[in-house]
From TrEMBL:
GO molecular function, one term: carbon-sulfur lyase activity
Protein name as it appears in the record: Alliinase C-terminal domain-containing protein
InterPro entries in the cross-refs: Alliinase_C, PyrdxlP-dep_Trfase, PyrdxlP-dep_Trfase_major
Domain annotation Alliinase C-terminal: ranges: 39-88
Amino acid sequence: MLPKLEQEIRNLHNLVGNAIMEGRHIVVENGSCKFISGLSMWEGDAHAYDHDDQPYIEMVTSPNNINGELMGPIVNKANGMLVHDLAY
């Protein structure tokens, strides 16, 4: 990533106060699906996820690509990890 872009993203979040940037990584990609396609298996609709005993990664895309609605996690269970795909 361009160092200037990374610094401006960090400055913006620090100014607005909407994200903790310390110790976090910023990944620039043209859509999260390309980034994770080889790393995971698609399980379908997050509302229907019922594998309580298995670890998972939930992609939170916000704002939503279809209607611009701000989104949050849906599954949000103890053994999961959230990855936030934010649009700038």
